[in-house]
């Protein structure tokens, strides 16, 4: 085998000894090979031997650790083959069995396992399964919240709940606990972090001196500097053009003066001055510009000025949302709430830890923090290594860490503790590929070391080595990557300068080929409702199909070969709901494809069937799981068979009907019962994983699902379910019942497992997320869905967290019933947005550097709109502020492409004039304007029509069946329960259906019904004696007691109410023997009495409320208050006579007293109306009253 040659920088990284070394390795630079060779060189060195078990090699995945071990062992085996009698090599290979090559969590787990007593842990603890831990988290949060409710003597917790909650529950409180807890656990000794961030809420510190104010002032300075530059460029563009000078000159100059004054205030840090200027900032009106020929220039000037307006408006409404006084008020209001929240999170931490301890469980973050407790101890305000840390550090000659850019603060402290305070630490990484911030990775740790360490000279340590040569890609790929990132990446956007030191240097051996230039495909879709993803997928599928037929090749082993499907990869920022669309498009073109989903395990077809099988075995009387299994491919019962079985027992469970079917000789039912009964007996004593294996063996289900689409992935999912069952039982779960309950709770909480990865096959186009592609490489890469907008959902959240800037949230004013943004929240949103977009830049870098030979980028949408937007930003070098304002990866790439020397056609279509273009060196770029073809099925194709007549016998049966009528159809229209008021509505609904005047014509804010409800509320709760004396004061009393809302109080007709209390009717009421208000009743009555003529013996339950009933010597009097606007008393009497007739019938029976009179009192007419009734049949009334 030919010995590999190393570059100077690679050799230095492999051979250097003597101190800490940081290797910044670009994509494709062979960093893993260098790390392996460094380990091997240390193991082979017989002059200064290092035993294999005296090295600690840390990677960030178990798969990477396995690969690392295999590669080191293979190199040692290769050396041993050349020197078979070497005792040194034989010893090293023996020690490789004990070599510490693992993830950080595996290292921490080993350390904790050997020191459980110091940590007060049970010796038989295990790592909890994610689904089970999720349930424990929910329980711990619920208990912590309940405890705070119980001890909320001063109302501080209620204030916090009011601040965070958005509905009728406290789910948002729970979500906030989880978000803050998960965030702080990436910090070592997070209790100190919380204490420090709580102190930031000090109202005595002026806004401009806080970390939040400084962040906003810096952003404002950057924004206004950009606006001022734009203003100057606008003035330069119209210089010498008299028409423009006359119409636009004066307003543009005034804009510049205001912007300059604002910039001066920002730089001086005068917070209130900035707020005042932004709130009063005005743009002068532009003069008329008629007949000006250069319409493109005119629109460009207006658009760029509108952009400045938008920036000013955003600063005024968001970042500078509060002046100094309002800022102090906000901090004073939020300080106790933040303190309560932090206490709640710590209480949750204790509760969660206790529940885990009771069940002998740990989670992954526990491993890091318990390792820190063992390795570090407090010394004043700092921490120092413990005696155990010093002892552990002596066990290792060197600590080597891969992917160091993805560490967090806790991990960084662990590495420092076990490497003699960083004296023998070897770190490899590439900050440009740090794309795991959502897992709390902190690339700033790597950046700080990269900035602080000096270049390697072999003498001074710590030192850094830059590996910039790329051995993966063609020059066409590497130079395009350099072209893009020279313009986009900076310290402010990307968290590092893309300098010459960071550029990719092509070093792979490829022959020149002009056809391998990068291609940018802009797929024009004008229809707003078109399915852009589907159309773009179809376009990409046709382009791949063309690759297979146009003679495209792949360079392999020094020679070209035809391209295969397996050489192609589709990268999507988010494959969810899109990967399947691409697979369907590829299928239509005859392209084999494979996608690796990372969600929806429990919803997969094969898993739903097996979960139902387990539920059915646990409890066969659950009909839905039982039917799911019966009608699945396992047993194949048809709907007709199911219906026949159900007819055997229509009232009991389906399992009882199935048993009856078996007794009557149905062999399919009997066979099913025999098999399931045997499995149920096994389930009593067999572990769930064993039970699943038995089910698979008896039903051959894995073979069945192999025939489905994506059969291998489905088969892998079935085996994955077994693995989850094993993990569940290892974490303390026991038996089928517990596992089924566990799955039920997961489903209720919408939690899920990760599907199995079955591998992509040898010759299939792979469809991956960009994150999943990290570490992989493909000859042809399609970066698709480029126009997808960045996901900024987190920035709209009402809370935010940041490592340096702490915690922030909105403020609520309960008096004004309003919610406000705050200066801390806006500052954190700015920094989180910058960090998020910096990560999106690094995600783009990872995507572009996966390509070995050719790179395709596709984006779809309205191309002219996309170009217009990008051209506004691409006028001159791309400043960090411009890069920050982009809304998609596609927008970034279009900005760069517009400034590429090759893209004349693109600039022409954009209709913009550009000054200095960017340097491209060898970065050739081809822009393709793609057209979407939509195929529509031909309708009315005479050649495909088949003429045939109907089956007359079957048609006659259909007609006979369709003519059948339910014999009791009339009864279906009779309600079981009815309110008496519905009688009046039934009579008047047709008569007044179109007579109601809309409120927007009457000008009323409340409807007539709402006004009537308000008056009834007043009459229900009013003290009649007080009201008769002073209606105004009684109204005020009811308003204070909140019996009425302010809106209701405004529409109470006090003059009409005063008239009622001076009427003869009221005097009769006060003189009566007894008076009842709001008399409620519930009664059963013949349906015919309610107007249902065909009711027969059917009865209707009637409920109602009588406004007032009073008793005189010769009987009771019913009074009903009405507010209807009518023209005469007869109209009101006709409308409500039937309702009062029912009142009279029911109350006479229920109260066992004659009702001598029914009176309507009309507040609108200010009079009483006594109703007359014919003799009615009281038969058929029975029931009871609830007065």
Task: Give your account of this protein's structure.
By secondary structure, the chain is of the alpha/beta class. β12, α19 (475-488) and β13 (505-506) form a beta-alpha-beta unit. The strands form nine sheets. Strands 3-2-8-9-1-11-10 form a seven-stranded parallel sheet, with helices on both faces. Strands 18-19-17-20-25-14-26 form a seven-stranded parallel sheet. Strands 27, 28, 29, 30, 31, 32 and 33 form a seven-stranded mixed sheet that branches. 50% of the residues lie in helices and 14% in strands. It contains 46 helices and 33 strands.
Brief sketch in words of this structure:
With 1187 residues, this protein is of the alpha/beta class. Helix 19 (475-488) packs across helix 35 (889-898), helix 20 crosses helix 21 and helix 38 packs antiparallel against helix 46.
* Count of strand segments: 33
What would the principal axes of the Cα set say about the shape?
globular
Unreliable spans are 934-947, 987-1003, 1177-1187
Strand content is 5-15%
| Cα gyration radius (Å) | 39 Å
* Overall average pLDDT: 87
- What is the distance, rounded to the nearest whole angstrom, between the alpha carbons of the first and last residues? 101 Å
Number of helices: 46
Give the neighbour order of strands across the main sheet. Answer: 3-2-8-9-1-11-10
The helix fraction, in percent, is: 40-55%
Largest sheet geometry: 7 strands, parallel
**Overall SS class:** alpha/beta
């Amino acid at each position: 085998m030919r010995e590999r040659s190393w570059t100077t920088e690679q050799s230095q990284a492999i051979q250097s000894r003597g101190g800490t070394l940081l290797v910044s390795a670009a994509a494709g630079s062979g960093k893993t090979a260098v790390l392996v060779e460094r380990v091997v060189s240390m193991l082979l060195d017989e002059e200064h031997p290092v035993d294999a078990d005296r090295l600690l090699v840390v990677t960030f995945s178990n798969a990477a650790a396995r690969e690392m071990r295999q590669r080191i062992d293979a190199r040692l085996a290769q050396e041993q083959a050349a020197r078979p009698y070497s005792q040194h090599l034989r010893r090293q290979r023996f020690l490789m069995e004990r070599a510490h090559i693992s993830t950080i969590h595996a290292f921490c787990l080993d350390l904790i396992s050997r020191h459980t007593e110091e940590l007060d842990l049970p010796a038989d603890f295990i790592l909890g399964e994610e689904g089970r831990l999720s349930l424990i988290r929910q329980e711990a949060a619920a208990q912590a919240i309940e405890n705070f409710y119980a001890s909320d003597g001063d109302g501080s917790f209620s204030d916090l709940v009011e601040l965070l909650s958005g509905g009728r529950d406290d789910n948002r409180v729970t979500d906030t606990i989880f978000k803050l807890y998960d965030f702080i656990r990436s910090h070592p000794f997070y209790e100190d972090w919380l204490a420090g961030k709580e102190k930031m809420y000090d109202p005595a510190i002026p806004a401009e001196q806080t970390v939040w104010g400084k962040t906003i002032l810096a952003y404002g300075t950057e924004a206004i500097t950009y606006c001022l530059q734009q203003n100057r460029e606008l003035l330069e563009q119209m210089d010498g053009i008299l028409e423009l000078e006359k119409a636009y000159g004066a307003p543009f100059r005034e804009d510049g003066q205001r912007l300059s004054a604002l910039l001066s205030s920002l730089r001086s840090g005068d917070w209130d001055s900035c707020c005042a200027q932004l709130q009063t900032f005005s743009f002068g009106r532009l003069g008329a510009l008629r007949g000006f020929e250069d319409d493109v220039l005119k629109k460009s000037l207006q658009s760029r000025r509108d952009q400045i307006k938008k920036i000013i408006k955003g600063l005024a409404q968001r970042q500078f949302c509060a002046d100094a006084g309002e800022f102090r008020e906000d901090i004073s209001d939020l300080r106790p709430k933040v303190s309560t929240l932090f206490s709640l999170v710590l209480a949750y931490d204790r509760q969660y830890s206790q529940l885990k301890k009771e069940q002998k469980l740990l989670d992954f973050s526990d491993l890091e923090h318990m390792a820190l407790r063992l390795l570090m101890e407090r010394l004043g305000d700092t921490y120092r290594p413990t005696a155990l840390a010093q002892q552990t550090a002596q066990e290792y000659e060197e600590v080597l860490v891969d992917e160091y850019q993805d560490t967090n603060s806790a991990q960084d402290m662990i590495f420092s503790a076990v490497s003699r305070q960083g004296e023998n630490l070897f770190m490899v990484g590439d900050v440009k590929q740090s794309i795991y911030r959502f897992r709390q990775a902190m690339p700033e740790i790597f950046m700080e070391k990269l900035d602080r360490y000096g270049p390697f000279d072999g003498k001074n340590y710590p030192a850094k080595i830059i590996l910039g040569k790329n051995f993966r890609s063609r020059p066409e790929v590497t130079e395009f990557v350099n072209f893009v990132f020279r313009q986009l990446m900076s310290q402010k956007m990307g968290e590092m300068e893309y300098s010459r030191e960071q550029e990719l240097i092509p070093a792979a051996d490829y022959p020149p080929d002009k056809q391998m230039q990068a291609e940018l495909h802009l797929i024009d879709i004008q229809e707003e409702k078109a399915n852009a993803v589907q159309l773009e997928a179809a376009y990409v599928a046709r382009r791949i199909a063309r690759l297979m037929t146009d003679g495209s090749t792949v360079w392999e082993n020094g020679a070209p070969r035809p391209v295969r499907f397996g050489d192609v990869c589709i990268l999507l920022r988010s494959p969810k709901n899109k990967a399947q669309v691409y697979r369907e498009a590829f299928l239509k073109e005859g392209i084999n494809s494979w996608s690796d989903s990372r969600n929806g395990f429990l919803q997969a077809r094969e898993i739903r069937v097996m979960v139902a099988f387990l539920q059915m075995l646990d409890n066969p009387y659950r009909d839905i799981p039982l039917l799911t299994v019966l009608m699945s491919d396992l047993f194949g019962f048809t709907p007709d068979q199911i219906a026949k079985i159900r007819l055997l027992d229509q009232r009991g469970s389906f399992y009882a009907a199935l048993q009856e079917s078996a007794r009557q000789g149905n062999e399919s039912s009997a066979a099913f019962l025999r098999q399931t009964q045997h499995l149920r007996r096994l389930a009593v004593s067999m572990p769930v994983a064993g039970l699943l294996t038995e089910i698979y063996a008896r039903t051959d289900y894995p073979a069945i699902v192999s025939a489905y689409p994506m059969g291998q992935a489905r088969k892998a999912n079935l085996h994955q379910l077994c693995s989850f069952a094993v993990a569940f039982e290892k974490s303390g779960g026991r038996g089928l019942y517990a596992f089924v309950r566990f799955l039920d709770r997961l489903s209720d909480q919408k939690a899920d497992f990760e599907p199995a990865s079955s591998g992509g096959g040898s010759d299939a186009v792979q469809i991956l997320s960009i994150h999943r592609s990290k570490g992989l490489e493909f000859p042809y890469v399609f970066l698709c869905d480029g126009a997808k907008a960045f996901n900024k959902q987190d920035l709209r959240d009402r809370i935010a967290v940041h490592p340096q800037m702490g915690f922030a949230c909105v403020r609520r004013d309960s008096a004004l019933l309003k919610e406000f943004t705050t200066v801390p929240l806006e500052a954190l949103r700015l920094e989180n947005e910058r960090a998020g977009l910096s990560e999106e830049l690094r995600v783009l870098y990872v995507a572009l550097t996966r390509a070995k030979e050719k790179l395709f980028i596709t984006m779809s949408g309205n191309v002219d709109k996309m170009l217009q937007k990008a051209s506004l930003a691409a006028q001159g070098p791309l400043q960090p502020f411009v890069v920050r304002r982009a809304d998609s990866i596609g927008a970034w790439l279009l900005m760069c492409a517009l400034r590429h020397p090759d893209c004349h056609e693109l600039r022409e279509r954009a209709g913009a004039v550009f000054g200095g273009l960017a340097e491209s060196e060898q970065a050739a770029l081809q822009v393709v304007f793609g057209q979407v073809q939509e195929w529509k099925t031909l309708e009315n194709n005479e050649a495909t029509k088949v003429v045939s007549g109907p089956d007359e016998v079957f048609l006659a049966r259909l007609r006979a069946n369709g003519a059948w009528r339910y014999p009791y159809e009339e009864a279906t229209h009779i309600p079981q329960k009815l309110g008496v008021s519905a009688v009046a509505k039934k009579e008047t609904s047709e008569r007044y259906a179109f007579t109601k005047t809309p409120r927007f014509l009457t000008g009323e804010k409340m409807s007539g019904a709402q006004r009537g409800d308000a008056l009834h509320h007043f009459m229900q709760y009013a003290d009649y004696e007080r009201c008769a004396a002073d209606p105004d004061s009684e109204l005020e009393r009811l308003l204070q007691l909140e019996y009425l809302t302010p809106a209701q109080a405004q529409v109470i007709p006090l003059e009409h109410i005063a008239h009622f209390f001076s009427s003869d009717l009221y005097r009769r009421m006060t003189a009566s023997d007894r008076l009842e208000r709001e008399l409620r009743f519930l009664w059963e009555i013949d349906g015919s009495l309610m107007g249902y003529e065909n009711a027969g013996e059917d009865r209707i339950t009637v409920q109602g409320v009588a406004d007032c009933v009073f008793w005189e010597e010769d009987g009771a009097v019913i009074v009903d208050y009405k507010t209807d606007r009518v023209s005469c008393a007869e109209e009101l009497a006709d409308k409500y006579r039937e309702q009062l007739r029912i009142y009279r019938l029911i109350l006479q029976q229920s109260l066992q007293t004659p009702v001598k009179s029914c009176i309507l009192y009309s507040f609108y007419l200010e009079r009483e109306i006594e109703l007359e009734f014919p003799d009615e049949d009281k038969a058929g009334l029975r029931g009871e009253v609830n007065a």
